[in-house]
Amino acid sequence: MPTTEPERVPGPAAARFPVVDPATGEAFDEAPHQQPDELDTVIDRAQRAWSGWRTDPAARTTALRTAADAVEAAGEDLARSLTREQGKPLAESYAEVARTAARLRYFADLAPRTRPIDDGRPVRSEIRWRSLGPVAAIVPWNFPLQLAAARFAPALAAGNTVVLKPSPFTPLATRMLGSVLTAVLPEDVLTVVTGREPLGARLVSHPGIRHVTFTGSVSTGRAVARAAAASLARVTLELGGNDAAVLLDDVDVEGIADRLFWAAFRNCGQVCMAVKRLYVPARLHADVVETLAQRARTVAVGPGLDPTTELGPVNNAPQLARVEDLTRQALADGARAAAGGHRLDGPGYFFAPTVLVDVPPDSPVVTREQFGPVLPVLPYRSLDEAVEAANGTGFGLGGSVWGTDLDRAEAVAERLDCGTAWVNHHAELSLAQPFAGVKDSGVGVAGGPWGLYGNLQPFVLHRPPEA
């Protein structure tokens, strides 16, 4: 996830704050700047709503299915609002709205299972499950709706209530989503709050919050964990990645080129599990570089509302500056841009899709999460060298291996130190699978039944056997 602090927006405290269109660099709307002391009332109401919401699983299922229908019905408005403030092509915003509805529908149909304990004792014991209470969900600006649903859908399905805070860079579509959902959910089951810091810090440290789910940078995630520890709230942290892709010497370069390019550049590279480093056999390096550079030079970059656009802008000015700085430093250290390497002229936060070669392996553009449309391509001499380099950062979210011999590729993928590894594709997830990182990439599990149980507390009940 972005290593800039997504919760900070420049400017004095005010009742409202500006929202910028990244395609123009100009403010086009405002959002409420709620104050930290307002959270006491919000969380108190969420606590009161929890007492009813947690008691009726059948009603929750019906409500969440209805919520999914409502999201789909509002799809056009949600998608256009999302593109305007986030920058991604409109088709991708429609897809994000669809995934938001699908996630609600998926979790609506999940329910925890009561499990008997067979331990040989003459006592009947069962594991049952209880919800936690109010949950704080803080989500970033790259997939505001999809990541919000990844947090609130399992929490609501488990019987919790949710206070959702989007990034100040992308508050509008989330506020709209909140309005759509609160129209069909019981009052105060889901509340959206918007504002600059210290609103987020107060939310995660509030004693009424029992679970904090956060997606964002490692540094902010550590701060979230420290703040939540004061009240011993549970934390689930998805802290981004620096995913490596390893190409094997039998890879079909042209056959994988489009999939590989979009695995790195989709959403302008602003994807936590995008390919951010590419390791290529030395004898294939020039061919791979030219194949990817050609796509980078010809992809249509522009405003997301333009139907011809394939790649939109970087979302915000601080992130654009970060991408520029990392690229400039790599070039100063001897790297060469086979494509791009610079900001595009004109308004907005546009950066040319960039393929870098001759990059020093210890360059920050390799070791850090650049979170933008920049891909360093690094040659390797031996497979052991490639695997060691792929595992050589503090991140461990995802990784991939690409080759013709699938058994061999799978064996290499098994060696990657990450939470999810793919063969011949990257960053493809289903709603039913767990999603978790290792090392600095996070704590806890999202997705599938694991995401549901992460929002529940086991309760063990013992009783004597029948006489």
From TrEMBL:
Active site annotation, chain numbering: 238
Domain Aldehyde dehydrogenase: 15-452
Organism per entry: Streptomyces labedae
Entry keyword set: Oxidoreductase
PANTHER family assigned to the protein according to its UniProt record, in alphabetical order: ALDEHYDE DEHYDROGENASE-RELATED
Gene3D superfamilies registered for this protein in UniProt: Aldehyde Dehydrogenase, Chain A, domain 1 (3.40.605.10), Aldehyde Dehydrogenase, Chain A, domain 2 (3.40.309.10)
Family (UniProt): Belongs to the aldehyde dehydrogenase family.
SUPFAM superfamilies: ALDH-like
Protein name: Aldehyde dehydrogenase family protein
